[in-house]
Design a protein that fits this description.
Structural class: mainly alpha
CATH architecture: Orthogonal Bundle
Distance between the termini: 25 Å
Keywords: ATP-binding, Nucleotide-binding
Protein name: Fic/DOC family protein
Organism: Ornithinibacillus halophilus
Pfam family, one: Fic
CATH class: Mainly Alpha
InterPro entries: Fido, Fido-like_dom_sf, Fido_containing
Helix content: 55-70%
Order of helices and strands: HHHHHHHHHH
CATH superfamily: Fido-like domain
Largest sheet: none
């Protein structure tokens, strides 16, 4: 399944380091699209241009404070992901809570970085997340699985499964989707892949693949969806270097 991806990744690696300005502009483009699409999937109404000007420090009239904070917080969470990658830190529950704390900072400080204490339901999904008293145990199981069973997996599979299992547990009151996509890109970036963007226009396929994973324990559709986005990001980089 990943033969083409691995070939493209090898081509990209053979051209590293990329020219400084090429690398910087690709990075800025992907970060902007990552923030815009990840927030839009969750219902943020800002356009990509509005997202860009907020990142530049300008307030957009007629938009809520929450929508502004979702952009700023997401940028800060991505910066944190980049620091984790740069420092080669192993994934931990503490990191996951830190990521979530950044996502909800100033939006819902009571629950930022704290596992939920209430039952939640995912709108439009057949899957129901576990009861609050099961979260600690299921998160520990997730971390044990990650540490013991994923070392030989292809990074795309590992990242996709981490995202899918985490969001199925839905450990937080809010911000699970954004956090899961940050975790997915964290795994990819650790292995030298560019970050991917799950696009808002693919939201239905994304949700359906996740629901199938959670209700049937069939992760193939979701892994394939992630693999397609990985290839898209690699293609963007390869076009830039010619």
């Amino acid at each position: 399944m990943f033969e083409k991806i691995d070939q493209k990744k090898a081509r990209l690696d053979s051209n590293r380091p990329l020219p400084t300005y090429t690398s910087r502009s690709l990075h800025e483009k992907l970060i902007l699209e990552w923030i815009y699409h990840s927030n839009a999937i969750e219902g943020n109404t800002l356009t990509i241009k509005e997202t860009k000007v907020i990142l530049e420090g300008i307030t957009v009239g007629g938009k809520t404070m929450r929508e502004h904070l979702e952009v700023i917080n997401h940028r800060d969470a991505i910066t944190y992901v980049e620091e984790v990658v740069q420092n080669k830190e192993p994934l931990s529950e503490w990191q996951i809570k830190n990521l979530h704390r950044l996502i909800l900072k100033g939006i819902n400080d009571d629950y930022a970085g704290t596992y939920r204490d209430q039952q939640v339901f995912i709108s439009g999904a057949k899957h129901t997340p576990p009861a609050p008293y099961l979260i600690k145990e299921q998160m520990e199981q997730l971390m044990n699985w990650y540490e013991q069973e994923t070392t030989q997996m292809h990074p795309v599979t590992r990242g996709a499964l981490l995202h899918a299992i985490f969001v199925g547990i839905h450990p937080f009151i809010d911000g699970n989707g954004r956090t899961s996509r940050l975790l997915l890109n964290l795994e990819l970036m650790k292995e030298g892949f560019p970050p991917i963007v799950i696009k808002v226009e693919n939201r239905l396929d994304y949700y359906e693949a996740l629901d199938k994973a959670h209700t049937q324990e069939d992760y193939d559709d979701f892994i394939q969806l992630v693999a397609k986005e990985v290839e898209d990001s690699l293609d963007l980089y390869l076009r830039a270097i010619g």
